[in-house]
Amino acid sequence: DGFAGRLKRRENGGMISAWIGTPDPLLVNHLSQEDFDAVVLDMQHGMWDMASAANGIAQVRLAGKPAIGRIPVGDFASASRLLDAGASGIIAPMINSADDARALVKATKYPPLGERSWGPSLALNHFGIAPDDYLQRGNSLTVTIAMVETRMALDAIDEILTVDGIDGIFVGPADLSIALSNGARLAPDSAAIDQAMAHALARCRAHGKLICAFGSDGERAGQYLKLGLDLVIAGAETAQLRTGARTAIAAARKL
Ligand code: 3PY
Ligand code: MG
Q1: Do residues 136 and 179 touch, judged by C-beta distance below 8 A?
Q2: What is the rounded distance in angstroms from the CA atom of residue 180 to the CA atom of residue 85?
Q3: Domain count, the chain
Q4: Can 45 be counted among the known catalytic residues?
Q5: How large is the ipTM?
């Protein structure tokens, strides 16, 4: 679907992706109609299982958009299955070392880069591609993104970025803020995170790899885009839904 290429070429500047944890494909259908460049289904803190995620991916594809799956920590088998179901990218949380990054690549890239096992029947349908083509091009049609959200990961960022098959990183400001304060604070919008983000951006650019991050709302997403990030989140669907509800109620009460 050209997503990986468009992302890497930064055709329209950075991308904005939806982020959905509620395991309802019909909710995905609605949100995919908005002007998002991609849609993330979150299996780590969201409630998707593999069958519902496959149906969610189908709804994203119906809107002609790329679907990305965030897997639970260390659940690399689910990364392969999401790709088989037609995901265009995988975001893996808590990748803290080159070893973690290599295990992720093993599950998400076909040989010789990795050891992804063959079975992408839904992906072939969604991409409209022949098996031989998908085998040849699958590794470059999909992106493998490692989350940097601990002190260890920040220290190992160059080693992680050096791993062949890692297409980029995704900074998790919530967990990173907890890690950097030794558990004292949840402060995703703090100066410490701004500093870490600038450092991560510089390292990703030095390695020629992608950098993405979770923004808690549209304003934060805009700041990250302005900084030069490749893909950003503008809040989870629950936050967007509740903000919309609050705005509507306030407007009604004002009259
Ligand atoms: C974090 O900020 O820690 C994330 O994982 C983004 O949801
Ligand atoms: Mg996190």
Answers
A1: no
A2: 36
A3: 1
A4: yes
A5: 0.98
CA of 65 to the centre of ligand 1 (A): 23
How big is the CA angle at 161 (ends 155 and 165), to the nearest 5 degrees? Answer: 145
Closest CA to 211 of 15, 2, 57, 37: 15
Q: Hey, whose CA ends up nearest to atom 4 of ligand 1?
A: 172
pLDDT in tens, 105-126: 999 999 999 999 999 999 999 9
Q: Tell me how far the alpha carbon of residue 226 lies from the centroid of ligand 2, in angstroms.
A: 22
Distance CA 217, CA 18 (A): 11
Q: Report yes or no on whether pTM surpasses 0.80.
A: yes
217 vs 237: CA distance, rounded Å? 10
d(CA 32, CA 132): 30
CATH of the domain at 219: 3.20.20.60
- Boundaries of domain holding 99: 3-149+157-254
